[in-house]
Automatic annotation (TrEMBL):
InterPro entries: Cyt_c_oxase-like_su1_sf (IPR036927). The chain crosses the membrane at residues 7-29, 41-60, 76-94, 106-130. The keyword Transmembrane helix applies. This is Cytochrome C and Quinol oxidase polypeptide I. Signal peptide: none annotated. The keyword Ligase does not apply. Gene3D superfamilies: Cytochrome c oxidase-like, subunit I domain (1.20.210.10).
Length: 135
């Protein structure tokens, strides 16, 4: 298993734990309900998407009988996805209590990094799974 594949799986499990703890804290203290966005994105982009990336990178090339087309792009996607998610959630959380144009711009910047990481995955998977046209 490639290192970045294992890393995706490991961080997804960490995000599941963090999102679960935050969810319980939100139930315990209703003032934390302002962080529903953080909780849901930890679950969906952290736990679910990171697990799908890791399993997808490992399994889909094997199903297609082809090696992953761009392994270094997978590594780049790992770092971009995690930096994007963490930055987006940190600046969103700061903006809940201290809104400003700068904080909003930083939240959007890290959100764009997250979208870019998704585009990397889409491109890498399609380049791996779709056969080249015969000449």
């Amino acid at each position: 298993m490639d290192r970045f594949v294992r890393n995706f799986i490991v961080v997804s499990i960490i995000y599941l734990g963090a999102a679960s703890v935050l969810g319980v804290c939100m139930l315990w203290n209703e003032s934390l309900l302002n962080f529903k966005f953080v909780h849901s994105h930890l679950m969906l982009l952290g736990w679910v998407s990171m697990m799908i990336y890791g399993v997808g990178y490992h399994v889909l090339p094997r199903f297609s009988g082809r090696p992953l087309r761009y392994p270094k792009m997978g590594e780049l996607q790992f770092w971009t996805a995690n930096a994007g998610l963490i930055g987006m959630l940190v600046f969103y959380a700061i903006g809940v209590n201290s809104p400003s144009d700068t904080i909003k711009a930083l939240t959007l910047l890290f959100s764009a990094a997250e979208v870019f990481s998704i585009v990397l995955f889409l491109y890498n998977m399609l380049a791996t799974l779709l056969p080249k046209a015969a000449h």
